[in-house]
Amino acid sequence: MLPRCIPFILALLLVTAAAQQPAKPSKLPPNQPPPRSDQGSIEPVLKTRPGDGPQSSSKETPPDLSAPQNDAKDHPDSDSALHEAEDAAGLYEGDEIGGVQEFKVWNPHKAEKDVEVGDFYFKRKNYRAALDRYREALYYKYDDAVAMFRLAVCQEKIGEGEEARKAYESYLRILPHGPFANEAQQGLGRLKSLAPEVEKKP
């Protein structure tokens, strides 16, 4: 026979569960169209320099990008310094620092994953698939030393001696005393010893 308190406990649990049920949401208002710019919205106002009046940020009134007053007189050597900086950046004549330049993709996490997948293919001696992954890693992180070294090894394995030599040298430029520096030096030595044989072939 069940104790007399069990029905009471069950009733209490049901009442508690019913109390915890969320209330039905009230009817939501109908969707409203987003505000439009032609309905008299207020344009944002910017101040470019202290003392200037408010200027619109719209395309009709472009911002003033001219040099400050007396800039050429106060900084007479800035033109040659700018040309030196452009040359150091490897820009061609006509390209300008501050102008629109091509951006390089930078995703070190993707590069690391590509190296991991490349290692998977390399262990299975699928050097061409590994080579593609190491190249992709260098696309996402152009100075990745591990990807550069493993790219060189793959290129050496599939007979791309000149490309392998360049990759070994690039690795040594990135990390001259890195963990694969000795192996890269040995690879360069192997490729130099094979170079005369390649030249003899018609």
Descriptive account of the structure:
With 202 residues, this protein is an all-alpha fold. Helix content is 53%, strand content 2%. It is built from 8 helices and 2 strands. β1 (45-46) and β2 (55-56) form a beta hairpin. α4 (108-123) packs antiparallel against α5 (127-140), α4 (108-123) packs parallel to α6 and α5 packs antiparallel against α6 (145-157). The chain is flat, with a radius of gyration of 34 Å. The N and C termini lie far apart (103 Å). Residues 44-48 and 198-202 have low confidence and may be disordered.
What's the mean pLDDT score? 78
Q: Which structural class do the helices and strands define?
A: mainly alpha
Low-confidence stretches: 44-48, 198-202
Number of helices: 8
Sum this structure up briefly.
With 202 residues, the chain is mainly alpha-helical.
Main traits of this protein?
202 residues; mainly alpha; 8 helices; 2 strands; 53% helix; flat; disordered C terminus
Structural topology:
Blueprint: H1 5-20, E1 45-46, E2 55-56, H2 71-74, H3 78-88, H4 108-123, H5 127-140, H6 145-157, H7 161-174, H8 181-200
Antiparallel strand pairs: 1-2
Helix pairs in contact: 4-5, 4-6, 5-6, 6-7, 7-8
